[in-house]
Structure prediction request, 593 residues.
Amino acid sequence: MCGIAGLIHRDGTSGIGQEMTAMLQALRHRGPDSTGFAIYGTPAAGEYVLRFKVAEQEDLASGFRIHDEIKKRRVEVDERLKKLGADVKEEDEATEYAFRYRITYDGDMRNLANFIEDIEGAEILSIGNALELIKDLGDATVVSEQYGLGDFKGTHGIGHTRMATESDVDIRSAHPYWAYPYNDVAVVHNGQITNYWIMRREMERDGHRFVSNCDSELLAVYTANNLDKGDTLEESLRKSIEEIEGVFTYLVATKDALGLAKDTMAAKPMVLYESDDLVALASEEVAIRSIVPHEIDTWDPYDAEVRVWRT
Amino acid sequence: MANMSSQDKLSHDLGMHTEQLTGRTQETFFDLKDDGGFGYHDAFDVDFNKRAEIDASNMGAKEINARIRELMTEGHGTIVVKNPGAKHSLAVGILNRLNLIIEGSLGYFGCGLIDGPNIRISGRVGWSCAENMMAGTLVIEKNAGSTFGAAIRGGDLVCKGSVGSRTGIDMKGGTIIVGGDTGAFSGFMMQRGRMVVCGNAGKNLGDSMYDGTIYIGGEITDLGVDAVPSELTDLDKAWLTRKLTMYGLLPEKGVNHFQKIVAGKQLWNYDNLEPTEKKLIL
Prediction:
């Protein structure tokens, strides 16, 4: 089933971490397997936030040696960043296996991503000026507390509660997906993509990498591919209605925008609330009510509808 | 035709089915000998002048539904639910006469399986509102989500705003009225009943409909398989005027501009053709 939610403030920053936590917790019944956030803070000039993991949560139960292995992998990441000329300004250890680095880097982002992910167990969750992408097993409250999202201030965000149906219960298959190697682009999706393997092979032939077998990852790679070819976010969303088969409603967030696309069957739900200063959308209205408790006017976007909102 | 009462004839002319309900289900649930007629044998005797309120702010769906039932057992005929907070599955399975006023919005599956109550909702409703509704009236002041009135069998289901996709999917009777627009696949596999949309309709309207009638006041994106236009008769106009007036939705320009859509009845199940032959026809 899965639940997705998005939020964008048009009048400045807000407690986006707390708001997204409340929205996703209200959608817990749609998928308790994992929860993910892509939240956007104030961009720092010349700096990137790099979020990566070097193991899955379930790996911790695989034996005593994994703890040493995780330390070794992290040292390897540090060395490779240094070798590429990236300067690490700040390091946070959110969990034993997932890390947040604030870095400066002038080189090619795809090279950096490929070089880091060449380390066993390493996966870059996101790179961005403003984007912080957090995902782990558990409901929204658990993940939010684990990664300290309660104090996060920002302009917009998207999130996902996952009920695993076609791939494993692990962080690799959790949403959001970062649109590798594009800074600040993330995707959450509710639905099933039926031409996943055909599209995936096409994307792989074009040199794009996939880290999971989750069909939703295709939308992130697909978006990155379109942006790479010069499409705007809106053009990419419109194109996806024609090219992606199956039932889907998905959200894309960039540094300064939030986009929505719904398939031609309108088979997956989405409720939308739009005011002068706030746009909130979710698989169920109850999620919007968790941050806007008073009576509001909401509606369902129609089939093949595409919308983009900017901060 | 010859044995029809005047009421039956009127219904027949409007395209409604008029067979009597004599099946085993009806015998089980209704007391046909009761002069009051067609009340469930365990229905509550309520007084519409006896009013009660429920503040649903801190209550779960199950608790709210149980409280509504409890108030009916105490004879309350008018119940007001405040602060429903778009919770799911509220006011479901009410098989009783009741004035239910919901001040706020409902989530998914609201007012499903109802038989008899008059419900008014000041806000919006989510997906699958009034699924399998049997009788009564349900009026929603704002918008509604997709699969609005799925498989309803009777009663008046009214949304004054716009509704999502697949409105009245598989409806088997009753009337659905929409003040605004409706999405794609509305009236999909409709079997009986009538749907009125004052605004526009999305693609594949009435796709694979077996029977029933759809009236559209605005633009139709396109018709689904076996849905065909039909002539809007004086009887249709009179019925539309009366129904829309009842709910304050009669357009200023009247109803003459409404388009009437019915089943072409060329689908495979109406004849004995082989599948390949049917494809040629459709």
